[in-house]
Fold each of these.
Amino acid sequence: MSILRKRSCAVVIALVVVCLSTLLSVNRSLGSAADRVADGFYSGVKYDGYVHKSIYSQLEQRSGAAAGLVTIGANYVALGDVTEALRSARQELANTMDGGDVAAMYKANTALQTAYEAFVYAAQDAGLSARDQKGVDSYADTLSGAQNVIAAAGYNESVREFERKTLSRFPAGLLAPIAGVDAPVLFE
């Protein structure tokens, strides 16, 4: 117990307490700010004075429209392969959306876009009924519109701004990794 009475021991204990409290404070404040930016993926972001729709909600729109195209495609033998590719891509998107991994959702959305484009191209020559063609056109509009909203969503810009204005500055840039603060993930 005599070691606790030494001045050097008291200084070391004080330094450890200060360091740990600083890291805890950084984790709470910077982590909270990073979480608010990351939450914009699910709730939308306010960027450049405009409230943008969430990317997640647009992925839901795209997934639903892709399911509609799969339902139509199932009625046409000529669309079998592209329908299966679209069904598979849509299922992968749904699975990644359940997992919450933003980078995986981006990859799955890109695969969905490729499968959707192949489906629409094949559907032009598949001899669809007027009703089914109208359905394909409607679902295609939904898929394209949602993709356009995603492209203009402002989420990536808010992440870049957070990284530029907060995480790249001293001391946040130095302390964030030590404190266990993860930067929000870009949707790209």
Amino acid sequence: MDTTLHVKRLDPRAQLPAYQTPGSAAMDLAALLDQPLTLDPGERSFVPTGLAIALPDSGWVALLLPRSGLSIRHGITLSNSVGVIDSDYRGEIRVGLWNTSQAPYTIQPGDRVAQLMVLPVGLAQVVERDELPETQRGAGGFGSTGR
């Protein structure tokens, strides 16, 4: 199983994605900014990385995830919760950030702003049915299994 992630710097200043520890499941992505960017409370903005990627094939996806420290300490999270980078996308990875806090937050050039996780994808065959198999849970939705 080929897990090679090909990365192209669209700007020579761009930092390659990097795992921060041997046990990291995702790589950090850094902001490629010419100057600091301040996000006011409730504000959203795209942050460029200066990188494009090529996944091995259609059996792979790259997910953009928030950095937990930014989210918990400063209220900075991804504007779309999780970003999906499909295997055939070759454009720049830009990170949509959202300041959910009550205070302005400034992103400095080179700050790590998101995580990139590469995962295998199970491509499903869609089959329409009049009935679905029964389960113990059934149609029970949010909170139906208890606290």
Amino acid sequence: MRKACLLLLLPLLLCGCRERSSHSSAFDPSACPNSTSDPTSSTGSSSGVDQEQALLLSVEKPIVEIGDEIVFSVTDSLTGNLVADASIRAVAGGFYIEESNGRFYGAKAGQAQFQAFSPAYEKGSNLILVTIQEESTPIPLYVNTAKLAEGDEGQLITPNYDIAKISFEFTQGEGEIYRDGRFRLYSDSATIVGHTANRTTNPVEVSSIPLSETPYYNVDVDEFYADYEPASSNEDAYFRSLAGLMSGSLHEQDQEPTIAINQPKEGNAFIRNTTMEYSADMNTYYVLDADGNRAFEVYRNGAYATLEEVAAYIYAFADVPANYEEDKDARPTQSIWGEYLRVNHSEFSGDSSNWPYQPILPGVSGEGGNLQYYEVDIGTTGTDCDPAYEALPYNNGYKITRGAARIVYAREHLDGTPITDPEERYLFYTYNHYNDFQEYLNYENGWGEMFGNITGGGPISDYDPDYPPTPYVEVGFQKF
């Protein structure tokens, strides 16, 4: 748990806009112009702000730990609208923070004071004081499987923390660890720990076994599928994937999603479930139904093909199932997955100037947003609104006919940092080749209202100014 109290002893802060004695030990917010009467305010309240002041700065959390991001918003005091061109500066205590691509992070324990500026406003904003405190807990570290097949790569996992900022080492055993958290073992077992400048991770232990001793080594594929049962654990899913065997449902995917009978609403808006329930090792994700009960689970290492399971997998793990390959030209006959191979995992362009019939997805980078979306194929039997896509099997074991169905999801911020805000964890489904979308609501058969080109009355895959795409349909957020 993070501490919820201010540090009792505050280090020296330099205001930057009035020269201070190097021997001073008190922080005087009145030494800076435009200061509010309460420098610890984090609400952006106009109380104490000059009546001419129209730029308001607020911070998501006024107390953060070392390494945490400091998230601000800048609004107009008269309209309440976000000010898109505002810049934020540390006007005091800048040595307690670090800045990367316009994002601020706590660097060491202390206090920093921030102010926002915009060319459209005469004065800077109110001042915001942020306290950076020593970390109270290790960075959580997990591994995708505690039992690794000899010669295979494992994956270290740091949920909601940029793994590239961590240096890893073996405290027991031998191996090699890459910058993205992938690793190989050169010993039968190992213990791995990560470090940043000021924090460490918990240790994780992993062992390897010979490939010939894994459960599905040289299994008869026909016999396996003749008596098929879905995977029973993450370890089971991992060993299946090594052999190119599925973990989830084998049912053929319809083009349209199945919709829950009673979908929760807040007024007229559908609810997106913000509860994300994992096992203790973070490798099993439990999908809830509309009543908040567990409906099914997906495993981090598993292979999945149906819309419901692939959507849940991507939403939970921000990655694709094991049977997906990025290469769009991959062939079933050259893959261990055969007819269960799925292709395409590439960046999605949300630029409406190139694709004006596509609706604009929230926060999408192609329209000035900060979210990088990706897309993946979903194997369906065609689309009923576009004759260009025949109702053919997606994968008949010899050839892939990619069809018109895709999942499009927000994978990361433009600077590569992971998405930590559950409200930014967007995932959409389109079965008519980007003309219309429906939002995944993070529960079984939970899909939002369709929006886009055909919904707005436009022609298939073409733009008609008289019938522009209908916009994204906002949803509410609630824990189930």
